[in-house]
Target: DNTP triphosphohydrolase
Amino acid sequence: MELLNHIYTNQRSNTNNTSDARSEYQRDYDRIIFSSAFRRLQNKTQVFPLPGSVFVHNRLTHSLEVSSVGRSMGNLIGKFITENYQLTKESQEFYKYSIHDVISAACLCHDIGNPAFGHSGEDAIASYFDRHETDLKPYFTEAEWADLINFEGNANAIRILTQQQNGKSEGGLRLTYSTLAAIAKYPCESVAKDKSQLHRKKFGFFQAQKEAFITIAEKTNMILEQDSPIIYKRHPFVWLVEAADDICYSIIDVEDSQRLGIIDHDKCRKLFLNLVESLDPSQIDKTKNTLKSISDKNDRIAYLRAKSINLLTQKSVEVYQNNFDQIVKGEFKTALLDVIKNETEQVTKKVLDEIQRFSIENIYNHRSVLEIENAGYNVMSELLSQFIPPILKDEKERKTFEKKALRLVPAQFLYEKGTKYQKVMGILDYVSGMTDNYATELYRRIKGIEIGMTI
Model:
């Protein structure tokens, strides 16, 4: 398939020519690991609020685990492509030795655009503009307004990875176009959202990054579906990144709930055993025998979690291979994990549905989760109310307290010479980039709940 020779590139949006023993794709991974945006994920909630001495996942540990699964998928798919398709010598080298680095790096930064408090933070940002539509909408174009009232972590990831902040290096993290294309789950602009279609359920770039995204798409030969508003078909690598994420959060959230006592150990063990048996009945006896040798409850669940992830990874790769030609042509329309649910044995669908149902009822709607989501919503809303109104005013029209509010915002986020939209996006860069702890602390100080000097 000729297209396979043109859907990747080691080119970057901006880079210096330097000699390096690493490949361009390995450099992507390292740049993400060492970035401040990635480090901040350690204090961003995954599902559960950080509960003190009980270890559960945060956004950073989740991203590392997704990256590990993605690397495995990349290795398997690279082997499949090189053994089954005619390729140029350069492409043979890429799929054999580098595709796993691209998938791994993309997985590593797939959540890098998520604001503090997760989806609650996204909702708070979107709702703030929706609630103030009468006052704020006249400042923006229709497309810009759609960005704000539908604020999306996926689009924010592209912004973080490509945006040049004041006083910072040009081109953001300067990743390869291949890695950037691999995280674009929803390759359309906000006005093209359509929840009935998987690749348009949300949107993938803000108006401020529209030209940058078009360049990413063109450099990696993404298939243009519509040019006004802009809609692309998903890049073939996206499906692997999405599957790695889906596998990890669906399994690991259940493991965390067991550690916190939300789900009984025996119930958790039974769920995972049923999943292992449904995916590969030949392994169940060996799995049960291994469990007998493990006395620690958490370790037993960890072993079953690893087995479950491994089997779901293998199944996802199998689905990807079976539908590969459709995926490359942009004709595939179903997430890999959903295909596993619908096309494997009925018992697998039943088990996965049970895990999903349990997660919704007992994890995502657990009181501690709801409390942090509601608190986070209020914190983010209040912070926006402090910074958005003054940034929209001309500097000479700002009152003293508004000027002082903006002095709390670091200089790299203030685009005073930009449009109203650019100014607001700078504030959103600041607020959405906060960790849960920092946002909460700033909120408490602004509201006068805590008063005192900090250095």
Remarks:
- Residues 238-363 form a domain with the putative deoxyguanosinetriphosphate triphosphohydrolase fold fold (CATH 1.10.3410.10).
- The longest helix spans residues 59-84.
- The CA atoms of residues 315 and 340 lie 7 Å apart.
- Strands lie at 224-227, 230-232.
